[in-house]
Amino acid sequence: MRVLLLGTTGYHPTDDRQTACVLLPDLGIAFDAGTGMYRVGRHLTTDTLDIFISHAHLDHVVGLTYFFTLLYEKEVKRITVHGDAAKLASVRENLFSEQFFPVKPVFQWEPVQPRMTLPNGSELKAFPLLHPGGSLGYRLEHEGKSLAYVTDTTAAEDAPYIEDIRGVDLLLHECNFPNGQDELAKKTGHSCLDDVARVAAAAHVKRLVLIHFDPVLEVPAQQIADARKIFPALEAGSDNMELIV
Question: What's residue 103's pLDDT?
Fold first, then answer.
């Protein structure tokens, strides 16, 4: 599986990073639709696209309003947005209200199921995460390879979702804050670096790539190097990074 990181920050974009969006271009799958969504058209190789939304905060859904640009760059016969039913309804009613966006969206809306078999044969599992208002994580299995997408949650060695991500080949996990911001992380429903490394170690994943960094509180390179003592196969993700699973 080819995995492209199209947006690796949270809250708002910066000069170097767009907000949350991960694309599997050859499977026609995306996780979240932040500002990084504007890059999808130049990479997508399929004529369908299934987007799985973690939650409805703007840094994860605003890119749903970019689809006329995407369709100009690439012919896509079907676009389906999946997520928690209540959050999909909120996005439809608010983000696409006539006052905010005058044209009806060109895609379908489909509540995500706990387990789904996708048209391309992939198996997908959705699981709950701890975050204000609620969030979803996803695990995808395709032709013997696996990845997990976990964003907007507070990492902990005993987090319930550890069993959902156990043994994956690639874990994409938010690292919103550097170490030392524990209280802020708990208050906002986000994670600090070492806690994410401990989750990866506890779940025995093969590779950890950090995503969803705070746009202001940068994670120092030395902290990332030190975190490899907890989980060696750890690296920081960046926009336009390509990963092979």
Answer: 86
In a 10 Å sphere around its CB, with 0-12 CB exposed, 13-18 middle and 19+ buried, how is residue 244 labelled? exposed
Q: Beta strand 170-174 with 145-150: parallel, antiparallel or unpaired?
A: parallel
Q: What residues contact residue 172 under an 8 Å CB cut-off, 6+ apart? A: 3, 5, 22, 31, 147, 148, 149, 150, 151, 209, 211, 237
The answer, yes or no, to whether residue 112 has pLDDT greater than 90, is yes
Q: Which residue segments constitute the domains of the chain, with CATH numbers given?
A: 2-244 (3.60.15.10)
What tokens appear for 122 in the block?
A: 């992939």
Report d(CA 132, CA 206) in Å as an integer: 29
Residue type, 239: D
Q: Which H or E element spans position 208? A: strand 208-211
Gap between the Cα atoms of 147 and 23, Å rounded: 12
Cα distance between residue 135 and residue 147, in whole Å: 18
Q: Do 189 and 152 touch, CB atoms closer than 8 A?
A: yes
Q: What is the pTM of this model?
A: 0.97
Q: What percent of the chain has pLDDT over 90?
A: 91
Size of the chain, expressed as the number of residues it contains: 245
